[in-house]
Specification:
heterodimer, A: alpha+beta, Cytochrome-c3 Hydrogenase, chain B, 4-stranded mixed β-sheet, globular, B: about 230 residues, alpha+beta, Alpha-Beta Plaits, 5 helices, about 20% helix, binds iron/sulfur cluster, binds FE2/S2 (inorganic) cluster
Chain lengths: ~475, ~230
């Protein structure tokens, strides 16, 4: 007789997910699955709406990284209004969007690290869950908690001056942007009172990388081995191979660093990426068509991006990148928990990019919009905090959206997350008929490395109840525990 | 010299010329009454009921009732304001208003009224009617989800012969306001822009122009609707 154990929902992942673990008669793990309730309804919802509404409407997909959806949709609409496929915007439009995007990357990564990850690192993943949360961090490591809050605030304020609101703004419009940055707005960030200025953000970004590296030095066993598995990696990179989170070509490398997708135009994504459907979940499983579903799946996100990019085009982050790359002797990094390290290097890069952009006088220009010959289909791809995000739309001759296809970052990471859960479950649960708190946490920690944004991100962080359900072979519930 | 009459608004002594409508008389005294179907320069029709006041103990629409000598008008009372709020709520549940994605958000009178009257969750059940966008006209889109049938468009947008370019179609609860198919070609660029302006909500949309005004610079971003009146 086999038993099915359900861990639900995963706490401190942004949203709601459910892990089921099937045990055989000897209490060995025979199958694990991560169930994610994903809101695909948006693709239907937007049909029949005017195309210029898309950037504002689709950002409602997510309360954590709405800017990514806003900008990906706007990029697709740039194509539709004839503003080109990435090279046609006016300098102020392109740079305002980039500023918005790096603000978003910064605040989202910071939220993830300080609120969701730091409790595990500071208290250990097996610590009492009543301490191992952001409140615990605030009480015992005040300075760190304050840093987290202020860094997040900085990112949100950047979003506010570029999009009009901290969440769900309207800045990007098809073919451009609806405002520039005034000198007063700019100076708030360049010369803002301590700590809310960009130099402080760069300094803090460096110190949090230090914090992680120290932790790693003492806990390399855990960080290097937990849920480490080889995989392909995919992301956008700039044409010259530099990291670029807003625009570029699509590149994939395999676990050894061999290029398997050669810098292709995002407009052609359908030629290279397929989506497999499985019966047990609504979420699709993307893969590289050339390599098939078995060998073609890939990871996206910070870990993948630091594997695909040849260099980072900002000096301090590049230095950190070199240290990071040296750890794997220049080879791709396949260690799930190193995603945290990679993410923090991106935090630094985002801070440096914000500074560069804020100092650029193009941001005060008035030429906000570009228009050309309209076409009826467009693709917008960018690197969201959690990984590559694809938006694809077709409109009719009355300006109404006829078709929308979105591949969100968490979907791209679907197989890797399932893999990570399976590895940890096998390691932690084999031979045990009961689920202990540390076991559950190990599974959660592995998922958390991917920072999945599950369907509903509005739960109060850390307050989600944890529920374990135990099923027998006939899918009857034989036990349920809550905490 | 015109006849001057005396009346009170919420107990305050006021004067007006005989024959003045309550709405105007109250506004001349720098007091706010919400309106929706009413549009300046156009004959009032009293259909939306948002301007309801109690005059000499009878509920009536301020935009169509002349003020009388010695009239006692109740305007800013909790009873009247709750009635007005219920009108706003009815308009919300009767259509499909998803403000966060609406390009008129921040410029829309219905939304502004909902804020001013602090509508939270409507007391009525959402109807979720099945309605569509009509995008056939080359100059404007008509989003039927958001039309409150105030007829402001029908009453103001006229061709050179004085014929209404917008009209009612269908009947009962399926009635819709749309561009008249015969007169649609009369909708010049100027008239189309005017139609967008006249519509109090986001039902008449300009083509390819949405979201151009940044948040913070929209009509109602800083002050609630009716802020031009002192009281
Ligand atoms: S028309 Fe007004 S009330 Fe309706 S969705 Fe738009 S902003 Fe909201
Ligand atoms: S389209 Fe606008 S102005 Fe015309 S009836 Fe509907 S809500 Fe009123
Ligand atoms: S404004 Fe008076 S009834 Fe509509």
């Amino acid at each position: 007789m086999s038993k099915k154990i359900t861990i639900e929902p995963v706490t401190r992942v942004e949203g709601h997910g459910k892990v089921t673990v099937h045990l055989d008669d000897n209490n060995n793990v025979i199958q694990t699955r991560l169930h994610i309730v994903e809101f695909r309804g948006f693709e239907r919802f937007i049909q029949g709406r005017p195309y210029w509404e898309a950037p504002v409407l689709v950002q409602r997909l997510c309360g954590i990284c709405p800017v990514s959806h806003h900008l990906a949709a706007a990029k697709a609409m740039d194509v539709i209004v004839g503003a080109g496929t990435g090279d046609g915007l006016t300098p102020v439009a392109e740079k305002m969007r980039r500023l918005m995007h790096y603000g978003q990357i910064f605040q989202s990564h910071v939220l993830h690290f300080f609120h969701l990850v730091s409790p595990d690192l500071l208290f250990g993943i097996n610590a009492d869950p009543t301490i191992r949360n952001i409140i615990g961090v605030a009480m015992e490591h005040k300075e760190l908690a304050v840093q987290g809050v202020m860094m997040r605030k900085f990112g949100q304020e950047i979003i506010k001056v570029t999009a009009g609101k901290k969440i769900h703004g309207t800045g990007a419009i098809p073919g451009g942007i609806n405002k520039n940055l005034s000198i007063e707005e700019r100076d708030k960030f360049l010369k803002g009172e301590d700590p809310l200025n960009v130099d402080k953000m760069i300094g803090w970004s460096l110190s949090v990388i230090d914090f992680f590296r120290n932790y790693h030095a003492k806990n390399s066993e855990l960080i290097d081995n937990m849920a480490a598995f080889p995989s392909n990696h995919l992301s956008l990179v700039r044409k010259d191979g530099a990291m670029d989170l807003y625009h570029g070509v699509v590149r994939a490398v395999d676990a050894n660093g061999k290029k398997i997708l050669h810098d292709v135009d995002p407009q052609d994504y359908l030629d290279y990426i397929g989506e497999e459907v499985k019966s047990w979940t609504y979420m699709k499983f993307p893969f590289l068509i050339e390599y098939g579903t078995e060998k073609g799946w890939y990871r996206v996100g910070p870990l993948a991006r630091l594997n695909t990019a040849d260099f980072i085009p900002s000096p301090l982050a590049q230095k950190e990148f070199e240290i990071y790359k040296a750890y794997t002797k220049g080879k791709p990094n396949n260690m799930s928990m190193h995603t945290h390290w990679a993410r923090l290097i991106e935090v630094l890069h985002a801070a440096e990019m914000m500074k560069e952009l804020l100092n650029d006088s193009d941001l005060q220009d008035d030429n906000l919009e570009t228009k050309g010959n309209k076409v009826y289909e467009g693709v917008g791809v960018l690197e969201a905090p959690r990984g590559t995000l694809f938006h694809h739309y077709r409109i009719n001759d009355q300006d109404l959206i006829e078709m929308a296809n979105l591949i969100v970052s968490t979907t791209n990471n679907n197989i890797p997350m399932n893999k990570a859960v399976e590895m940890v479950a096998k390691e932690q649960m084999n031979g045990h008929a009961v689920i202990t708190e540390p076991m559950m946490n190990a599974v959660e920690v592995a998922i958390r490395a991917y920072d999945p944004c599950l369907s509903c991100a509005t739960h109060a962080l850390g307050k989600m109840p944890l529920e374990i359900s135990l099923y027998n072979n006939n899918n009857q519930l034989i036990d349920r525990k809550r905490k | 010299m015109a006849d001057i009459i005396n009346f009170t608004i919420d107990g305050k002594e006021c004067v007006a010329e005989k024959g003045t409508l309550i709405l105007q008389a109250v506004q001349e005294n720098d007091i706010y009454i919400p309106t929706l179907c009413n549009y300046k320069g156009v004959k009032p029709q009293g259909s939306c009921r948002i301007c309801t006041v109690r005059a000499n103990d009878r509920l009536t629409t301020a935009c169509t009732t002349p003020v009388g000598d010695g009239m006692e008008i109740e305007n800013d009372t909790s009873e009247i304001n709750d009635f007005r709020k219920s009108v706003i709520e009815l308009l919300f549940v009767e259509g499909n208003h998803f403000c966060p994605a609406c390009e008129m958000s921040g410029e829309c009178e219905l939304q502004a009224l909902a804020y001013r009257f602090q509508m939270m969750v409507p007391r009525f059940t959402y109807q979720f009617p099945k309605r569509e966008i009509d995008a056939r006209h080359p100059k404007i889109l008509k989003d039927q989800n958001r039309c409150i049938r105030c007829k402001r468009c029908i009453r103001t947008i006229k061709d050179e012969k004085g014929r209404s370019v917008f009209a009612f179609f269908g009947r009962g609860k399926n009635i819709e306001v749309n561009v008249d198919p015969v007169l649609g070609s009369k909708l010049t660029d100027k008239l189309a822009a005017k139609a967008v302006e006249v519509c109090p909500v986001g039902s008449i949309l300009p083509r390819e122009k949405g979201f151009r005004t940044p948040i913070g610079q929209r009509k109602f971003d800083h002050e609630p609707i009716g802020s031009e009146y002192k009281h």
